[in-house]
Amino acid sequence: MMKTTVRTVEKARRGRPGRPWLRVAAWAVLGVVLLGSSAAPGLAVPARVATERSFLDARPCVGREAAGAAGSDAAESDCVRTVRGKVLSAERVKSARTTVFRVRLREPVPPPADRAVNLRADGELAAIVRPGDAIEVRTWRDVQVSVSRDGVSETLPALPDESATMFAGLALVGVWLSIVAFLASFGSARRARRIARGLSYPSRIPFGAAKLAGVVAAPLAVGYLAGRVWDGWTAVGMTVALWALVAVSATLGALRWHRERPVVAPPVAVRPDVEPCGAG
């Protein structure tokens, strides 16, 4: 152990004096970049929240809006319209890496129901919808909300009440990674100060797969599991709470672990056969 410490100190003294501080600056710059990248989705959250509130408070369309009459501008209104139409085509197709059940309605139908609707390939509607069937498509503004036939309904993905939490999650990921970078910069600064004083700087936990999984993969896994257990903003709040508990406890533990302990001189052994001065 003593040989390893001596070699570490000698290696630090032979190294470039400014190199440890370059590492400090690099981690700090990375933290600033990650924090700045999280600003874009973070700034978009208020607008997404307003859209989410409008969608959840939307009422069913009535009169000219419900019929989609000319000049009703229902595609831009805040009401939920139900469009009834005949199925033109219904088939399973490849979309990206998944298979979907794609349905198209016969024209004329108002937008956005005139676009293809992608349903789950293993859903109940995929088993019963066929060309020529009458179905209902619920829409809001320019968004397709759900499809139903004979009491069987399927809600479509990527609705407006989901985008706000997604943007908040992206912002949280950027903030978390920037915190990790700032902590690495702080640790590098402690190491640089020890080098300047000619002290050793052994890493108690070397940077590798284990540390990377602990500071990056584990928090992201917590966020994913929170999204599976809770819905919407509850999942975001629980993710923040769990991240805070992990970050605070880990940081305090690391600082306490690396705290320099005072050096206590060993006691001087007194030989029993030597009489103290002045005795006898």
Quick overview:
51% of the residues lie in helices and 16% in strands. The protein has eight helices and six strands, in the order ααααβββαβββααα.
Tell me the total number of β-strands.
Answer: 6
Strand order across the largest sheet: 3-2-1-4-5-6
Overall mean pLDDT stands at: 77
Taking the alpha carbons of the first and last residues, their distance comes to 46 Å
How would you classify the quaternary structure? Answer: single chain
General shape? elongated
Major sheet: size, sense and barrel closure? 6 strands, antiparallel
Report on the structure:
- The protein has 280 residues and is of the alpha+beta class.
- The protein has 8 helices and 6 strands.
- β5 and β6 form a beta hairpin.
- The longest helix has 37 residues.
Task: Label this structure with key terms.
alpha+beta, about 50% helix, elongated, six-stranded antiparallel beta sheet, about 280 residues
What are the SSEs and their pairings?
Elements: H1 2-14, H2 19-37, H3 39-56, H4 64-67, E1 80-95, E2 98-105, E3 117-120, H5 124-128, E4 134-140, E5 143-149, E6 152-155, H6 160-196, H7 209-229, H8 232-257
Antiparallel strand pairs: 1-2, 1-4, 2-3, 4-5, 5-6
